[in-house]
Amino acid sequence: MFAARTTLRATSTRLFSTSSARHTKVTVLGAGGGIGQPLSLLLKQDPLVSSLSLYDIRGAPGVAADVSHVDTPSEVNGYAMEHLDAALEGTEVVVIPAGVPRKPGMTRDDLFNTNASIVRDLAAAVARVSPTAHILVISNPVNSTVPIVASTLEKAGVFDPARLFGVTTLDVVRASRFLASVTGTKPSECDVPVIGGHSGPTIVPLLSQVANSKAKGVQGESYDKLVYRIQFGGDEVVKAKDGAGSATLSMAYAGAKFANALLRGLNGEKGVVTPTFVKSPLFADKGIDFFSSLVELGVNGVEKIHPIGALSSQEEKLLEACLPELKKNIEKGKAFVA
Question: Please, what's the b/e burial string for 16-25 (b: 16 or more CB within 10 A of its CB; e: otherwise)?
């Protein structure tokens, strides 16, 4: 666990790290939306992206034309609704931020019916056109949409657990930023492993595993407030935007950060470790076959799923509250496809 945290700390001070190996075609499904547009801009700046393919039911060609003017080498192409297959042709990484955003009073579960259908249909297209692509799911509720993608790929006979990821990086980003604010340190000194899922009580920050000694001094009411803010930080943004949207910019940043980590792993860089929601054996005995924990990324996608390590008594309680809720979310996603 210590080595994994060291790796995270070494790469957390900048959005993109580079590799000298081959570059990659990346497709964004939902590039015209509130997350998709800034995500596309950030991916255009990633030196490991050689070709950027932007798709949406509306607006993607315009986003592509705009982003294509950024002075980095990657080529950008935009595709309208009727050209989904063309957008996916030859792609190695697919990022899916497509879906409707949360509004005030909505939980991630409220988004389910609409976003579930969108994600299922996009997953079916990936299975048909680029069955070996690595798929990064941003569309909420991630606890359910990732199992939806997995089940859709299974039905098509092309599911590879090493190639499917739920992007939970925003929880990690928030945990580092919020902990730094409480302790008066830098976010780069506060790499927080975040396990579980990607909504409310399923988000379990492991503050006891942070190398920074000041993190261990956060106790009592301060600890409770910090954990709550990490779990429900998205509500702050929804409320502040007064119905006009959810966490789009920070989510785009987190999505681009995870995409870069995966690209570095695919390019052969060693020791790339970060939390992500994947098919996991850690709690399979409890009927929970998807779980976010520290995962080592490599040329095959998922190379190693790390154990969660020792937990504090508070974290044990958080995990206990997480598991039944997470199981329910996962089963809901599977049932939707079935």
Answer: bbebeeebbb
- What's the pLDDT tens digit per position in 121-154? 999 999 999 999 999 999 999 999 999 999 999 9
Single pTM value for the model: 0.93
Strand-pairing partners, residue 100, are none
Name the residue among 160, 162, 135, 121 with its Cα closest to residue 336: 121
Q: For residue 256, how many other CB atoms are within 10 A of its CB? A: 25
> Percent of the chain, pLDDT > 70?
92
Architecture (CATH level 2) of domain 169-333: Alpha-Beta Complex (3.90)
Using CA atoms of 59, 99, 178, 217 in order, give the dihedral in degrees to the nearest 10.
-160
Phi and psi at residue 150, to the nearest 5°? -60, -45
Q: Map out the domains of the chain as residue ranges.
A: 20-166, 169-333
Amino acid (1-letter code) at residue 119: V
Q: Please tell me which residue in 23, 134, 198, 306 is annotated as part of the active site.
A: 198
| 138 assigned binding-site residue | yes
261-273 in b/e form (b: 16+ CB < 10 A) is bbbbbbbebebbb
pLDDT digits 0-9 by tens, 43-94: 999 999 999 999 999 999 999 999 999 999 999 999 999 999 999 999 999 9
Distance from C-alpha of 213 to C-alpha of 217, rounded to nearest angstrom = 7
> Any binding-site annotation on 115?
yes
Known catalytic residue: 23? no
Q: Are 23 and 240 in contact (CB under 8 A)?
A: no
Is 308 marked as binding a ligand? no
- Is 244 in a helix, a strand, or coil? coil
Q: How many other C-beta atoms can be found within 10 angstroms of the C-beta atom of residue 286?
A: 12
78's enclosing H/E stretch is strand 75-79
The percent of the chain in helix, strand and coil, each rounded to the nearest 5, is: 50, 20, 30
Question: Is 174 annotated as ligand-binding?
Answer: yes
- CA end-to-end distance (rounded Å), the chain: 37
Q: Which helix (H) or strand (E) holds 294?
A: strand 288-298
Q: What is the CATH number of domain 20-166?
A: 3.40.50.720
